[in-house]
Amino acid sequence: MGRRTFLGAAGVGAATTALAGCLSSGGGNDGLTIGHLAPMSNPLGIGSKRTVDMAVEELNEDGGFNGEEAEVITKDTRTDPSEAQSVTEELIQQEDVDLLIGTFNSETTQSILDLTAEFDVPLMITGSAAPSLITDSVGSDYEKHKNVFRIGPINSDFQAESIADYCSYLNDRHGWDQVAFLRDQAEWTEPFGDQIPDLLSERDLEIVYQDALSIEGTDFGPVMSDVNESNADFVLRFFAHIDGGDMLTRWHEGQYDFGIEGVHVSGMLPSYNALYEGAATYETTSQSGAAGVAPITDHTQPFVEDYASRYQDAEDAPTQAPMYMGFNTYDAVHIFKEVVDSLETTNTRDNLDDFVGEMLDVEFTGVAGQVSFYGEDSDYPHDVREDRGEDGTIMNYPMTQWVGPEEVECVYPDQHRTADHQMPPWMQ
Prior knowledge:
Elements: E1 32-38, H1 43-61, E2 70-76, H2 81-93, E3 99-102, H3 106-118, E4 123-125, H4 132-135, H5 142-145, E5 148-150, H6 156-174, E6 178-184, H7 190-202, E7 206-213, H8 220-229, E8 234-239, H9 245-254, E9 259-264, H10 272-275, E10 284-286, H11 300-311, H12 324-343, H13 352-360, E11 364-365, E12 370-371, E13 399-402, E14 408-412
Parallel strand pairs: 1-2, 1-3, 3-4, 4-5, 6-7, 6-8, 8-9
Antiparallel strand pairs: 10-13, 11-12, 13-14
């Protein structure tokens, strides 16, 4: 797998079908069927597929879902809205699924919301952060879109607040107060563009450079020069579609006098730093579950250990931990079991109102943290709640830092910290 192209070449083919349990294909009247949607040429999708399979296998062996074994059918969205619509329709119309889980980028998720609503299929979002996925669906027409819930991550509005507080921590620790703000030119980062300047200003931090970068391809040479000339203390970047490996390589080779912080989805891959020969060392990224390096809950590290024991010898990444979407997907399956056991039926589509009522009562301790949902009258109906500590700090959006070729530490928030944030040695 090439270092520069790992996101597009994870070694998985087109749409894949995974069976967990012993039921025949079909779903609906033939048994409980869970449809899983993910980009299967992307390690995020692979990790999510593995964790949905893990969860269903475990729960099938432990009495099933209201006594029924479940079957999982995974379809490849290819991170393409039209493809996502096509495979979602197939799962609904042909496979008669009782639940849909997954989807990564927000544009893909947006494309299937009306379709799932039309057929009353519960949809648990586990990889997309745009607030509009909730506010423009459940928040706009509750009766139509009440089938939609987000399990994680917390939406970008809450992410912006959490990241701003993290920047205050960097200021307290290193005296960093000048920020270069970079982001994907994509829907999920629009709240950051709207909110980060004011949030940082409120914390006495100054943005000295900012840009929204094309997800079709970015030459980081000019970007690095511009950031360097701005005298920024650190780059605060939000990359999900952009692989920042070239940026990190230039950073290390040039020993630029600024840190690289924020969100970098590619950098969540457990083998990422090795793929880039250590160039990611000292960068940070926020990620659900903190890559399993911190005991977010009592379930987090045993889950990652189980995942690694199953997949450490697998050909395709990720093998050591599933990346953030996998944490949320695993929790989604367990939440679904809790709800249908309480309902005493797995026929969710014919009992959608009851299903929604049970979901709104959920107080769940998962591998990614505490999970509960906002109600109908909130600003974010059916969105996962941010989990706050006694000091008001958001706890379910932890920051991790690469500190070695394969070593990661959780550096924020205090409640989950396994090590203090390290400044690159050339800056000291």
